Structure formats: structure tokens, C-alpha cells
Amino acid sequence: MPIIHITDLSHPHLELYSTLTEAQLRNKLEPEKGIFIAESPKVINVALTQGYQPISLLCEEKHIMGDAADIIKHHPDIPIYTGSRDLLASLTGYTLTRGVLCAMHRPRLLSAEAICKDAQRVVVIDGVVDTTNIGAIFRSAAALGIDAVLLTKSSCDPLNRRAIRVSMGSVFLVPWTWIEDISKLQTLGFKTVAMALTNTSIAIDDPKLNKEEKLAIIMGTEGDGLSAETIAKADYTTIIPMHHEVDSLNVAAAAAVAFWQLRVKK
After folding, report:
1. Is 211 exposed, middle or buried (0-12, 13-18, 19+ CB in 10 A)?
2. Which end of the chain is more exposed for a tag (fewer CB within 10 A), N or C?
């Protein structure tokens, strides 16, 4: 295996882990040839199992025969950059989670039509920009039977390093893509249900929602929620009934409740 020992921060090929921003990684060379960084052996292994292609590893020396050993065993040809814990922390700007990072190629995304072809329950993430919320929504989506995730371009990138970590690798388990026109889902046979507090909103446990064969659950931005236009175009608007005069839940918590309540009952 090609092990490269790092003694200083000027070593070539390390810009992937240090100087490039998330946006630069995403658009490096060409968008379809972009890169992302996954961290921790567990998360990296989830990505590899799902067919994501590694470029290189950055890890503490002790992990080459430890936590990273299984990754290296199955991908023996990728370069492994290693050095002391302090040096790697100074390189990346933070202490590595479980001592391992992996640069990977971004996949070519499928169309909304392709990932929704056989889906019954999908979620639309509209304008959610917090990476922690994105990761948490993906984790709930994977756990609670959501078939696909669609994001508007105003939302955070699911392959952001923190979003990946918070999701525990779930961003690799659920098909996802970007969507420009949410109403397209209605032409694909979905009834859209906007999570929004309006005078006409029905409760999330209203039986008519679960009777729908195909549902697209629309979650809005953390602060202002969904736009009036998006709400007006939805087939349903729904709320999670609250107690103690609490008006709403965090978007990630609300998504988990909605996914569970509106899941396909088998």
C-alpha cells in the first residue's frame, strides 16, 4: 500500500484536506468531477459499501493497522497520507474523528424522475441550510422508510463534511438529487404535503394522508418555513399538534415525526 509520511503542511496533494473550501471541493475541475470528504471509519465504510470511489486517505499512523485497516484492505491502491495527531490537526484545522479522513469522488446524480420512479414516500428539503439539520433529516429518512430525498438549490449540500458526519453515513443510503420545481412531483403521481402552520392545515395523523399511495413531504427552512407560493401549490398542508403553547419543532425533529407518522404501513 502506498503510504506517504507527512512531516510538514506543504506536501503536494494535501490541499484536498486543508486549503480547499467545501465549495471548491464540490466544484473542483468540473461539478460532475467534484470531491467530498468523509470522516471516521464507520462513515467511510458505509460510503464504500454503497459504491463511492475513494481518492486517498488521511489518517494517524496508529490507525493504518487499526481503525483504517479494513478500508485499506479493500482498497489497497489508494494513497495513504499519515503523520502525527498534532500535525494532522494543524493541517485540517480540527482533530480528526477516529483519526481517519477519506477524499472521495462525487457520484453523478440521477434525475428526480429516476429516483422517484418506484418511490412511495419522498421528502423535499426546501431551503434548509444548517448542515446539522440536513444530516439529521437524512438519518431519519434512512431509518424511517423514506425512499428518496430531493433538495432545492437553496438547501445545504448533503455531502458537506459535517452533514455526512451527523447523518452517520445515511446520506449514502438514501437516493437524493436536486430539484428546481417542486410541482414536478405532482406530475410524477405524488400528492404533496407541506409542513406548515396555516388556517387550513390538518393534523399529521389525519387518516386521509396515510391513504395516499404516493406522498411527497415538504420541509421548509429553519427560520421562515415554506414560502406562501409553495404552500399554496401543495395538495395538503399539515401540522404536528403541539402542547404547552409551543408553536413548532426544529425542522429535523419535525421531519422525524412526519416520516414515522406518514410511513407506508406494511
Report:
1. exposed
2. C
Of 155, 160, 162, 169, residue with least CA distance to 222:
155
208 close to 218: Cβ distance less than 8 angstroms: no
Residue whose C-alpha is closest to residue 96's, from 163, 50, 13, 165: 165
Which H or E run contains 204? none
* Distance (Å, whole) CA 2 – CA 204: 54
66 burial (CB, 10 Å; 0-12 / 13-18 / 19+) is middle
**Interatomic CA distance for residues 236 and 37, integer angstroms:** 38
d(CA 3, CA 190): 50
- How does pLDDT run along the chain (266 residues), one tens digit per residue? 588 887 776 777 777 776 566 666 666 545 556 889 898 889 999 999 999 999 998 888 777 777 788 888 888 888 998 877 777 777 655 555 557 889 999 988 899 999 999 999 999 999 999 999 999 999 999 999 999 999 999 999 999 989 999 999 999 999 999 999 999 999 999 999 999 988 889 999 999 999 999 999 999 987 778 999 999 999 999 998 888 877 777 899 999 999 999 999 87
82 close to 3: Cβ distance less than 8 angstroms: yes
**213: which 3 cell numbers?**
399511495
